[in-house]
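REVIEWER CHECKLIST
Item 1: Sequence provided? yes
Item 2: Single chain? yes
Item 3: Sequence as submitted:
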Amino acid sequence: MKKIILLFYLIALPIFAQKEYTYNFKNSDSLDAYIEKYELPFQEEDIYITKDFENSFRPYSESKFLRSPRIYVFNEEGQFLESITNITSEKKLANFKKLRKRPEKNEPSLDFWTSKIVHYKTGNDYDDPKNYDYTFVVNWDLIESEQTAQLVEIWSEWYNVLLRQKAKGENIQIILLNIDLQERWELSPDMRRFVLENVNRSWGE
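Item 4: Structure as written out by the authors:
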């Protein structure tokens, strides 16, 4: 069973994960410090984390949706349209006509995502009854590596382009989903130790 759980974590680790980085659990202070250190333009009301390990983080990782940097795009009906990974994709974000229109088959809907996240500070469930033309879930994490500057630039550019779209009157929602391991999950000491030892050993080999 533990080997299966470990596999979920390995799937979820960032695309740019580096061997010298040590994974650890994060909290709202960690996120705030990272945002301040790297001057990320993130607005607090848009930042969310996974609610818990068993019912939130684990289903995400099983679906292979805990990758960073990546944007997941949903239409007005909450249907999954596409994932965006291209570093220069701000051109697509600046012109929604370039977004995929036909929903991807057999992919989780927006409800699958929003039912499993909470605000990173308040711990409140995501609850927004408004319908949006598009919802953009931007995955990010507190990675510290030789690629950090590049990652920060990507996240900042994506977010700023989407903020400009909102300012122009586009009816969109932005969810900044931090995909790190979370203190808020309150795992048992044994489970915490197991997760950290195995994740860090696997990426240190």
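Item 5: Key structural point noted by reviewer: Residues 2-204 form one domain.
Item 6: Recommendation: ____
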